[in-house]
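Deliverable D5.2: sample structural annotation.
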Amino acid sequence: MARHDWQPNYSVILKHGDIESRTTMLVDYGAELSLISLKVGQDLGYTLADSESTLLAETIGGRVEYVLRNVEMTIDEHNLITPVAWLQTNTGGEQLLLGREVVFDKFNIEFRQAEEQIIFTWRESLKS
């Protein structure tokens, strides 16, 4: 059995207020929402409101707590606002996920595993 170890990671800029962070996110067709870690959210300046409740989600690694945040994202010079799940549980990992909501509506995304390449095509440029 052959195994291809490439992971479809893509460079993304996350922004909140005046704070900007260039990072790499795993493009995950199976994820409805994009996901950022507790640390990345804190680095962007996010805080919890006093009365804010966390939500629970089941993942491969078990149950995690999160809150929703809208993040300004830049992908290939295109800016968009997308909801993300900001983890409230320190999972020990820093893997960020680029999920379907908003992102997959704004871009056609082509996976070329043999070339270890992902191609994002802005959908607005496809309209005649």
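Annotation notes: The two ends are 45 Å apart (CA to CA). Residues 61 and 91 are 9 Å apart (CA to CA).
The annotation will be released with the project's public dataset once the embargo ends.
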